[in-house]
Amino acid sequence: MKFDKASLLLYAVTDRRWLNGETLLSQAEKALKGGATFLQLREKILREDNFRTEALEMKELCKKYKVPFVLDDNVDLAIEVHADGVHVGQSDMNAGIVRKKLGPDKILGVSAETVEEAIIAQKQGADYLGVGAVFSTGTKKDADNVSYETLKAICSAVSIPVIAIGGITAQNVLELKGSRIDGVAVVSAIFAQPDIEEATKTLKDAVRKALEL
């Protein structure tokens, strides 16, 4: 294992929709101060050179807080900037090809919605799985909901860590209790909040209760 699975407890995924005059870097630091344990930089529309600069800055920030840092989808850039790894979806590059490109020492996260997808991803070299959407979400309009039963079945079917994603809040995370997940990944529950640091602290406490830590 290239990282302690405890670092998956509260996995923050960036989103620049709620910057309100701030920088993504300053918002990410607030999340890390509040206790986020893992950070994924997600950019869908940023120019490649700007994305590269931002990725390098975010990598240094995560190093300061001793938190793993991965890029969403962009495998080549993750390699170029020496990120800790990358997260890919089912519609992105095949996980086996990504693992070959990354080599054995980088973190590879893969999205899964079914037990079959989860087992294949593990065989192809995934280090952890992101499973969802477990609740309805406005962040990814095309995400299908994954039932509690499917989430629990995926956790039982694989030996790698599983994090739940999709519409998770401090109010509903307790509904995931008993599923055997290792953590949760969130976007708006952190970055859409008026007080990011405080929202992160509150959410982390709720996640600990849900995981019975």
User: Regarding CATH, which class?
Assistant: Alpha Beta
Q: Mind telling me the CATH superfamily name?
A: Aldolase class I
Strand content: 15-25%
For the biggest β-sheet, the strand order reads 1-2-3-4-5-6-7-8
Number of DSSP strands? Answer: 8
CATH architecture assignment: Alpha-Beta Barrel
Fold topology:
Blueprint: E1 10-13, H1 24-33, E2 38-41, H2 48-64, E3 69-72, H3 75-80, E4 85-88, H4 95-102, E5 107-112, H5 115-123, E6 128-132, H6 148-157, E7 162-165, E8 183-186, H7 188-191, H8 196-210
Parallel strand pairs: 1-2, 1-8, 2-3, 3-4, 4-5, 5-6, 6-7, 7-8
Helix pairs in contact: 1-2, 1-8
List key phrases describing it.
alpha/beta; TIM Barrel
Word description of this protein:
- β6, α6 and β7 form a beta-alpha-beta unit.
- The protein is α/β, with parallel strands linked by helices.
- It is 37% helix and 16% strand.
- An 8-stranded parallel beta barrel has the order 1-2-3-4-5-6-7-8, surrounded by 6 helices.
- It has one domain: TIM Barrel.
- The model has no long low-confidence stretch (mean pLDDT 96).
- α1 (24-33) packs parallel to α2 and α1 packs across α8 (196-210).
- It has helices spanning 24-33, 48-64, 75-80, 95-102, 115-123, 148-157, 188-191, 196-210; strands at 10-13, 38-41, 69-72, 85-88, 107-112, 128-132, 162-165, 183-186.
- The longest helix is centred in the first third of the chain and has 17 residues, at 48-64.
